[in-house]
Amino acid sequence: MNYSRQRESIKEYLMSTHEHPTADIIYQHVKADYPKISLGTVYRNLTLLVDLGEVRKISTGDGTEHYDADTSAHSHYYCRCCHRVMDLEVTPSVDQILAASSAGLGTIEIANLLFTGVCQSCLNEQSKE
Amino acid sequence: MNYSRQRESIKEYLMSTHEHPTADIIYQHVKADYPKISLGTVYRNLTLLVDLGEVRKISTGDGTEHYDADTSAHSHYYCRCCHRVMDLEVTPSVDQILAASSAGLGTIEIANLLFTGVCQSCLNEQSKE
DNA sequence: TTCTAAAACAGTAATTATTCCTATTTTTAT
DNA sequence: ATAAAAATAGGAATAATTACTGTTTTAGAA
After folding, report:
1. CA of A129: how far to CAs of A45, A81, A82, A121, A125, in Å?
2. Does residue B28 belong to the interface with chain A, where contact is any CB pair within 8 Å?
């Protein structure tokens, strides 16, 4: 695999934010530095980075995938109202779960715990109306 | 909300299987009883049932959503090779997690734990080659 | 049982996220 | 400097899902 400035820029942006952006948001940001970058390049590199284990893909079920350069064991909270993904310090004892559940299964590469609900700021907005 | 035979059939099929089918698979099955049913009807009713909490949507990140009529607390194992979703008895102490993590957040409606890897049968296939 | 309004439907068109394709440019090693 | 491999931009194609519209079904009241 060869170096590419575009891929580097995508990684850099992802590492600088905690916002779990979608491919399109990443595209818009990287465009500031590389105005000619194409969306296809963003997608291709995201797939690459996920396969390399350098980036985590977060599927919320809202129609777009979110990406996170923080690959440490942590959970996410998804607000089905504003569609934001937030980090959660709380992580279950994934190691124990993995040990307990891996019997009879194949490999386990990713364990993703996702909470869904309506976040505090959306609840505040709703109570105003 | 009014009764509909199509919705009943969708629910019935979902309750009869442990295969976590996609909308299209559900469509093909319900078609056996209702040959004129349209895919749009399947999607609309799935969304309805999920909103009612009678069906669970499982997002694996493989481009299609999976559905499950078993709404009890349980985990899933996703094989990134054959794209099947399987049930896992093992469930972390979600109640504890919820209690611990709900501080400062909004509501928590769904907690989904998804394991991803390559399942035993896919590993067997691969070792043959 | 008719009648009526609301809800649901089938069929199809439209949308949107993502992938694929190709000719050109960049990277890397010689 | 050169050449092969890898990556890119741009645009076309795909596939899952949603939206639209005229027709049918449902449910409740007359």
Report:
1. 43, 15, 16, 13, 7
2. no
Tell me how far CA of residue A53 lies from CA of A49, A57, A88, B11, B97, in angstroms: 6, 10, 20, 38, 26
Return the DSSP state at A47: H
pLDDT in tens, B6-56: 999 999 999 999 999 999 999 999 999 999 999 999 999 999 999 999 999
Going by their DSSP bridges, the two strands B110-117 and A56-59 should be labelled as unpaired
HSE of A7, CA atoms in CB hemisphere, 13 A: 14
- Dist CA B22 CA B67 (whole Å): 6
Q: Do A97 and B93 touch (CB under 8 A)?
A: no
Residue type, B38: S
Structure tokens at A57: 């893909």
Number of residues assigned to chain A: 129
Q: Check CB contact under 8 Å for A117 and B110.
A: yes
Provide the 8-state DSSP code for A75: E
The answer to whether the CB of A77 falls within 8 A of the CB of A119 is: yes
